[in-house]
Amino acid sequence: MIRGKRILLIISGGIAAYKALDLIRRLRERGVLVRCIMTRSATEFVTPLAVGALAGERAYVDLFSLSDESEIGHIRLAREADLVVVAPATANLLARMATGLADDLASTVLLATDRPILVAPAMNVQMWLHPATRANVATLAARGVSMVGPNEGPMAEAETGPGRMAEPLEIVAAIEAKLGCGPLEGRTALVTSGPTHEPIDPVRYIANRSSGKQGHAIAAALARLGARTVLVTGPTAEPVPPGVTAVPVETARDMLAACQAALPVDIVVCAAAVADWRVGDRAEQKLKKGGEGPPQLTLVENPDILATLSAPSPHRPALVVGFAAETEKVLEHAAAKRARKGCDWILANDVSPGTGTFGGDTNTVHLVTAEGSETWPTMSKRDVGDRLARRIADHFGSAQ
Ligand code: PMT
Fold first, then answer.
1. Does any domain span residue 367?
2. How far is the CA of 89 from the centre of ligand 1 (A)?
3. Residue 400 has pLDDT above 80, yes or no
4. CA 265 to CA 253: how far, in whole Å?
5. Are residues 195 and 121 in the same domain?
6. Which pLDDT value is given to residue 70?
């Protein structure tokens, strides 16, 4: 439960500071104790009076205020919280955090705190994409600072791209996840992602175009909602999402073994593009061109991980979700696949050439359940992950 948790909210000076007011309200509604620090520039956008009135406690601004120091002191401010949240986090404040500057109350508290930190960046697109900001973000991530957003969309300067602060409810969800209080707290999840590589000989393999973006986004979303999440992933360039335990594998058989080792779990999502076949007689040495023409490869069927995990057993996960990658009759084939493999839900996506589903950043999925199907609008793979994770949380919420 998030009720009763103490959040130290640091508001820095960007136009998104007005959203901090809604964030405070959302947190207070949930019974969270919110104490606020504002940078000087934040006070140009929203007043300490408004922040203090919503928080139910005055907002702190000055480092060198005698009364503040005697009343609470910056070290107590830094330590008396379960989580420090910086929203909005401007490029300037991220840079000061990365370099360890302590030149105002906000940066001093951020340097002095021993509490976990969550930042919600908000800035102009070019500032977000600037190599200096990229480096600062990487430094902070390496130090364990968590991040929510920024989102893509139209911005104050009529530019579009990444840089919009995450919405207050997204920040609340990230806070819940960071504090282990999300709606999936206490649940365990297993996600498969990426392609498998099936060796032909020591240097060649059969593979497919899966990038792992979709599966990794789902694992990240489940973890954000508090699920203890294991990600069994084929070879991909995708980074392991924060808070997720990754198990890298190569072949379909490795993937099955890793999934079985992760059981029991409550939730399974099979997003991996598992090779249906492997080379039965893989060569121990590199195949050579000879006079006898090209080698004949004999393919044998791989185990079906989704069907195996869906099969009735005392350890069957409560909810098993598969994917269906189709190029025609998408809904019809997906419904048949759901029944054949025995999973509870299937997310059908069209992988025809030109859709960009394999490897791209967006996806158009249809959720097929025993009750019927619904089509979700085209959205980023991250948003597909969030929507699926929330749907799973609702499923468990209503099942209780
Ligand atoms: O990785 P990205 O580039 O982001 O692309 C995402 C995606 C297109 C790979 C993803 O959205 C997707 O559709 N994943 C499933 C790909 C697939 O193999 O679909 P399928 O229809 O062939 O298989 C149906 C289901 O059975 C899938 O859940 C699959 O993981 C599972 N399966 C398939 C074969 C097998 N041997 N074992 C399995 O578990």
1. yes
2. 37
3. no
4. 19
5. no
6. 65
Decide if 120 contacts 87 (C-beta within 8 A): yes
Domain of 38, in residue numbers: 6-178
Rounded CA-CA distance 162/153 in Å is: 7
- SS3 state of residue 243: coil
Instruction: Provide the pLDDT for residue 240.
Output: 87
Domain-ending residue, one of 178, 212, 237: 178
The verdict on whether 208 is a catalytic residue reads yes
Q: Token pair of 306, please?
A: 């989704």
Q: Among residues 92, 124, 136, 208, which one is catalytic?
A: 208
Do 160 and 99 fall within a single domain? yes
| In the predicted structure, residue 64 carries a pLDDT above the cut 80 | no
Q: Of the spans 73-82, 215-224, 241-250, which averages the highest pLDDT?
A: 215-224
**Residues 86, 84: Cα–Cα separation, whole Å:** 7
Ligand 1 atom nearest 209 alpha carbon: 3
Mean pLDDT of the region 221-236: 93
| Same domain flag for 159 and 245 | no
**Contact assessment for residue 138 and residue 121, using Cβ atoms and an 8 Å cutoff:** no
- CATH assignment of the domain containing 44: 3.40.50.1950
pLDDT band at 375 (very low <50, low <70, confident <90, very high): very high
User: What is the C-alpha separation between 12 and 17, in angstroms, rounded?
Assistant: 7
Residue 116 to residue 229: CA distance in whole angstroms = 20
Mean of all residue pLDDT scores within the chain: 93
**Helix %, strand %, coil % of the chain (to 5):** 35, 25, 40
3-state secondary structure of 83: strand
